[in-house]
From TrEMBL:
Taxonomy, superkingdom: Bacteria
Source species of the chain: Maribacter spongiicola
Keywords, in A-Z order: Signal
Xref: PROSITE patterns: PROKAR_LIPOPROTEIN
Signal peptide: 1-20
Protein name from the UniProt record: LVIVD repeat-containing protein
Length: 421
């Protein structure tokens, strides 16, 4: 009888708890971030290791007999190119949060989650890190890594100090929560669902060469780096004491940087912005050329700028094409011709030849002798073309995990080598 009474009371109590104002209850997946101190994490995120397969090929950079290929957000691969017919991967520089580099006097300047990191490659077999300037490019107090969100019903962040802590993983547990809490959080008008994202507010002999998609550019003793809205300026005269100068705000959508003489040409999703650097520490606005929303690298040769606009997806709704712009009057750039393209990315110029990476449509080669009128002279199909670097005697092109090298032959080019990264 006592057991019966106890069982009856237990059932009644359970019913009361389950049917009160917060019930009924269910099991839900609750995810919480695992954090690590930013200083120790960044120290662990840099290393030089033996060659490894590439995950996602990004930008390329050429320096002396070497090619550096970015592995998006992971670091960059070092390739010995003394023999362009048979390039050899010799190292991988692990640098998390990296997308771009520039090199001068055997020093690599690279980004890492908003920090500027400098490497010494004077001995290519013993690459060392010289220094790291925290938040030099942009303030990265809210560091969000590229971790995928785990499948969960609730995301709880606790008391994370976003100026000190970095999210390095997730812990997911099964916990009892009221159905009402779940439904009120996810099935109501105007509710804000928790998300971690809600917290995220002509080269010199000693200088390498990047492609048209570059965000880094070294000119004399100054390094210019564009983030999403500013030109970041560094005086690198003294490698032991790099000076971080005042930023220059451009727009909220800038993507690339290119130079001709003492003029900077900034490519952005909304247009091309022109700045003078007579005073290299304080670029001054000259003019802009506006266009529809699209991804927008730019290269310049003489009185003309060549801008590829890639529409669709996150790039915007502008139709893809090549814009040829007269910049003989820098204060009043004038659109001359638009050539339709399929899905252009980077581009480059060698004398009177214009190279355009047209995505899945391959590498297209144009004669620009009669600019602004250009003539298609060759197409390398069945490849994915991302960006190019025209060198003195050869052309480098990066595609989908593949490095292509072409040599100039009279007025045309031919494939020299293909290297799977």
């Amino acid at each position: 009888m006592k057991n019966f009474v106890f069982l009856f009371c237990a059932i009644a109590l359970f019913a009361f708890v389950s049917c009160n104002d917060d019930g009924p209850y269910e099991d839900y997946l609750v995810a919480r971030p695992i954090v690590q101190d930013a200083i120790s994490f960044k120290a662990e995120a840099v290393d030089v290791v033996d060659p490894i397969p590439i995950v996602s090929s990004g930008k390329i950079y050429a320096y002396q007999d070497y090619i550096f290929v970015n592995d998006v957000n992971l670091g960059f691969h070092v390739i010995d190119n003394k023999n362009p017919s048979a390039p050899e991967s010799i190292a991988f520089i692990k640098l998390e949060g990296n997308n771009d580099i520039s090199i001068k006097d055997d020093k690599i300047y690279a980004d890492s989650y908003g920090d500027l990191v400098i490497f010494d490659i004077s001995d290519i077999t013993n690459i060392t890190i010289k220094s790291r300037i925290v938040n030099a490019i942009y303030n990265n107090d809210v560091w969000l890594s590229n971790l995928e969100y785990p499948q969960a019903d609730f995301y709880e962040y606790g008391d994370i100090d976003y100026s000190r802590d970095i999210v390095v993983g997730w812990e997911v547990n099964i916990e009892r929560r009221s159905v009402e809490e779940y439904e009120s959080r996810y099935n109501c008008d105007g509710c804000v669902v928790d998300s971690l994202e809600s917290f995220n507010d002509s080269p010199q002999p000693s200088t390498g060469q990047g492609g048209s998609l570059a965000r880094f550019k070294i000119i004399d003793d100054y390094l210019y780096v564009v983030d999403y809205s500013n030109i970041n300026i560094f005086d690198i005269t003294d490698i032991e004491e790099i000076k971080v100068l005042d930023d220059v705000q451009v727009a909220w959508d800038i993507e690339t940087i290119y130079s001709q003489g003492n003029i900077l040409f900034i490519g952005g999703a909304q247009g091309m912005y022109i700045y003078g650097i007579e005073n290299p520490e304080k670029p001054e606005f000259i003019s802009e050329f506006r266009h529809g929303t699209a991804c927008d690298p730019v290269v310049v040769d003489g009185d003309y700028a060549y801008v590829t606009l890639k529409g669709g997806g996150f790039c915007g709704n502008t139709e893809s094409g090549l814009y040829v712009i007269d910049i003989s009057n820098l204060e009043n750039p004038e659109l001359k011709v638009i050539y339709p393209m399929d899905g252009p990315n980077g581009l480059g110029i060698k004398n009177n030849t214009l190279f355009i990476c047209d995505g899945d449509s391959g590498l297209k080669v144009y004669d620009k002798t009669a600019v602004p009128n250009i003539t298609l002279v060759n197409t390398f199909e069945d490849i994915i073309a991302y960006d190019v670097i025209p060198l003195a005697s050869s052309l480098l092109m990066i595609g989908d995990r593949t490095l292509y090298q072409y040599e100039y032959v009279d007025d045309n080019i031919r494939l020299l080598s293909t290297f799977q990264l």
